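Just scan my protein:

——
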Amino acid sequence: MNSSLVVSVKWLLQCLRLKLRNVLIEKLIVYAIAADASRKPDPKAQAQKAARAVKSGPTFKKTKKIRTKVTFHRPRTLKKERNPKYPRISATPRNKLDHYQILKYPLTTESAMKKIEDNNTLVFIVDIRADKKKIKDAVKKMYDIQTKKVNTLIRPDGTKKAYVRLTPDYDALDVANKIGII
């Protein structure tokens, strides 16, 4: 008797499960149909929405970009100024070409002496890297004299020679005596 009772209870449970499952499936189908129906918009509401959009006019009007060149280049990107956290060079570099370095020594050859007497011109051997402006500034700083112009040439031995023409208010002979050339 016990075993038949157990079998009947099992059978009842199975029936209940099947019934519950069928009921659940039916409900799911009903919900899916309702959701599908709600997903389709009402044609009247759709028409009203379109009418409002037409009445309000376009929200924006896209303008066509006028191209002036036949080649396309990508736009320039933002270039920020450098803002280092610490200086890469600890100290500012020393000026290696100061006025003592520029003017090496005055020439005391016969042709140089002739230039001093005849042309009011001093002749110096200068650094190979020095240009006319730097030579002019160095002569002004060292000997406190105004120069009219500077001519330079590079000698065959690789040194640079500078002919420093003085202004008429300075006499090259007096300056040469002061320097100690003569």
